[in-house]
Amino acid sequence: MIIFQPHGKRIAAAQGETLLDAAKDAGIAVNALCGGAGLCGKCRVMVLRGERNLSPPTEAERRSLSEEDISNGFRLACQATVSGKGPIVILVPPESRAERQRLLLRGLEEKISPQPAVRELNIRLKEPSLKDVVADVDRLLRILESEVGAKVKIDYEAMIRVPHVLRRGGWRVSVVLWRDREVISVEPSPTGLYGFAVDVGTTKLAGYLVDLRSGRVAAAASMMNPQIAYGEDVITRIKFASEGEGNLRVLSRSIIEGINNLIGEACGKAHVSTREIYDVTVAGNTVMHHILLGIPPNYVALMPYPAALQSPVDVKARELGIDVNPGAYVYALPTIAGFVGGDAVADILATGIHTAEEISMLIDIGTNTEIILGDRESLIACSCASGPAFEGAHIKHGMRAISGAIEHVWIDPETLEAGYKTVDDEEARGICGSGIIDVIAEMLKAGLIDQSGRLNSEAETPRLRGDGNSAEYVVAWGDETANGHDIVVTQNDVREIQLAKAAIYTGASILMRHRGVRPNDIRRVYLAGAFGNYVDPQNAKIIGMYPDVPLERVRFVGNTAGSGARMTLLSVEARRAAEEIAGKVRYVELGADPEFQTEFLKATYLPHREPERFPSVIALLK
Amino acid sequence: MIIFQPHGKRIAAAQGETLLDAAKDAGIAVNALCGGAGLCGKCRVMVLRGERNLSPPTEAERRSLSEEDISNGFRLACQATVSGKGPIVILVPPESRAERQRLLLRGLEEKISPQPAVRELNIRLKEPSLKDVVADVDRLLRILESEVGAKVKIDYEAMIRVPHVLRRGGWRVSVVLWRDREVISVEPSPTGLYGFAVDVGTTKLAGYLVDLRSGRVAAAASMMNPQIAYGEDVITRIKFASEGEGNLRVLSRSIIEGINNLIGEACGKAHVSTREIYDVTVAGNTVMHHILLGIPPNYVALMPYPAALQSPVDVKARELGIDVNPGAYVYALPTIAGFVGGDAVADILATGIHTAEEISMLIDIGTNTEIILGDRESLIACSCASGPAFEGAHIKHGMRAISGAIEHVWIDPETLEAGYKTVDDEEARGICGSGIIDVIAEMLKAGLIDQSGRLNSEAETPRLRGDGNSAEYVVAWGDETANGHDIVVTQNDVREIQLAKAAIYTGASILMRHRGVRPNDIRRVYLAGAFGNYVDPQNAKIIGMYPDVPLERVRFVGNTAGSGARMTLLSVEARRAAEEIAGKVRYVELGADPEFQTEFLKATYLPHREPERFPSVIALLK
User: Fold this and answer.
1) Residue B311: its chain A contacts at CB < 8 A?
2) Which residue of B has its CA nearest to A159?
3) Of A61, A344, B111, B239, whose CB neighbour count within 10 A is largest?
């Protein structure tokens, strides 16, 4: 008998069966990226009771787990087999659960009680007669006002539909109310009630079609931000927007068209009509937020880098050209500063660090990486120009985390051979952000690169070839890939990642100095980002992306910007909280920090020029 | 010394000078349509003191004035000359004052203290700095909120202009606030503050560009309702709107384009930019109101004839496509019923009959004529399908009251010769509504037609020619007209007017029965309409258009719908009153009245089949 915690699932296990198989039988998804070969180390579980009913640790386990881990009862689920008849109690820690991101985010969202901004009412009206000739619209509003107990307005587009709809519905109609203040739609029969949450990244757009009744995500879709054509980072986009009369409009249109594509795709998947989408929320960095709304972002790039708008806004979707129900509003999350936007507010909302008693650090990795540090008393934030490398740009075989992207890599330190896993287990087509982080950390551990980031062309493996700036490591041979060509990580790719991670670390480090805290004071580190399905926190630490904090305090939480956007879609209370957050966070301008340059240069090392900043990583590398 | 009342103007007059000339010298405009020839009788004044210092009544005066008039001290100003040195006190009654309509309406509007829905604030902002990086829009709204003492929203189109405007204005900007609740515009420098009031008639559109600071009408414009192409009356328009998918949109577009033309014309005249128009009010009958707003009017034509919307609405002008400042709202006056609309509400507002202690009757003559009867306790209303004859349609030489339209006609009962006055004193081009009413009343008095409306082909004048249905009376000979052709009133024209006036009288009569009042109980009759500059109340009574009420109680008040629309433009208090009026007036459905048919047939006579209904007219005709 094995009991899996925290699920509480019990299952009878056969002698010789691995814990991984038993978990599978119990319906529990445990990570097993290498397919149970004992290589990836992702299936770590903790034996709470009945250790003696399991086989002793294997060679593979001793490679993957530290002495301390083993003495603490950690095992690899793919290696430990049942050897005795007594009860075994196993804890599957969060990081070993498959589809953690989804689970975690659902968990975060479930903390809030659903209270969307829109609701549907089914109304029955009396037919007019010579004795009762109250006008159609007034007739409807009077009933609604008595229902709601307050004055109710009606959207113009909804209003002009009333006469026909009342008669088509035989004086029974479905009304969608926004914030109990405004009728935004009338239909002759009950309607689906959906919302669409959008995370507008500089490089990537992600959209979630949410059933507002159940809170369930009915479908998701993502794509490159079509604005990429006008520049890779926000500064280039601002420049483009400022250069010509109609350029802002071009940028706005391209992002709106992108969102309309996401809406179309998600609605297609879920068989939902776009007219059934009655609410839209948008989280994005300040520049994306401004461009989406058609607000000139020009001055964000100029000292003192002011945002044009911080408050949340409700704009009719039709004013923006977003293709949902014509009465629907778009709620744009508030921004914090010119370079810390609604995506950061969403991150904070999703992780709840604004209500935590202990100090947390949140790092939302993207083309601009936002870092937030603090607790419920106060929060400070900064923005780092980390560039689009983690999203696959500037990387030779970089790509988004879509089907066929290598998202996880492990390198055998003995043979220097690589193993990997692709998204959807398709043939490899390139490497996404999480894969690159893995490759560099694994190469560092295996001695294939040194701490300065230089590829060791002397390493004895056919996978490492060339030297100097043309050195590269083959992650996947051509006979395994979709297009028949080798997939490699080049010396230049490593440099790109070094710059990107240095930008992030420097921001984190300056924030810590501002707040006067040391790594050990930080009780939680949240790694967020829409660029991969799962980033290995250990590997991210090994390359020095974030301060050396004990691993059990670190969580990859995925696309928290999208998650926060979904929370504001599901709850007006979350909108109130978002507004409070936006007013509370203090922005720290890194560019104005005198130590920025020297901090940055030291941070380009792997993990850092000053080994004392990363004692646990240095110990591991030794 | 002559004193003119109620003006209180004093002037020394020379012996032999006419009162008309003396009045002119005193700057008082007295009507003198016939140019002082003693023909038109429009310059009636009353001698309050000093009768013996005037010449005795002339032959012309004895023709124009009744015995009773003369014994009451009435004189024609063009005939009475100064003959003594003693003081003379003259009363110029309202109906003898030139440009009465404008004066009267300004008077009506001045009763309300101006408090438009929009106001301009000139705001000075602090420039952002690294120590104060509040976002542009938030920065602006915070100042406004402290100014206004309440939460202030910002219009989307205004919002996206804020960053550029703040910097162009050097952090001093002009803000236009709507109802102290919403910023609808931001400009880098102070702006004109105009509003546009529209009276949307079935046949005619009239628009008024109003300076909201002074309350002054800066320019006016009018035109035929372009919807005329889709049917002459509301029923035909409803039919057209109901017949095809896009037809409502066609009708809406045509009316909006018409309004945009009026706006362009008025702005051109007054050298005002359309962007300086920050508010629009619209009064129209219910069908025009619905079509303008894009609301299907279909069900207005079906029992129980419900309006689709009674409440007043504020719709963004840009939603309707009206070409004013993009942040401006259009306020559509509330309607009363399917066939009594916002124009009737505006009429009531302008005349103030809803606050009067004594009973008033208001008749707004148009293609649909609305009649309202009552006092401050209660009001009832009906709508009469009087047709477009008073607006010049269905009349052989009918036209709108624009330059060259014959607006007044007098016929010498001895010679049967006609005199007339045209709008702007241009060469005659046709006859407008007030001219037709004059012709028929004058022909009746001169015996050129009988009470059944038949032209007397035996009359000895070359002006009357043909017989039976082809009989006609020549008002202007070809050598006096713009196109060289005679302008005539035909037998058929008389029939059209008989039907139209019968519809109106019948409505008035049924309302009186509902309310239980007789003509003498009605202390005020307001004749309203946009179809002419001035209708002669006496002649309108002679043809039997309204009940036989003493003439001094009757006033032609011109386009009160336009006047009420202007009042709601100038005062939010007037909007509140309009809403109260709309909720108070009880609609009487004439079609449901069993006596309608017989009443109507009797009313086609001139003035009526039952002479006892019009004792004063019958006395006059004898």
Assistant:
1) 135, 137-138, 141
2) B295
3) A344
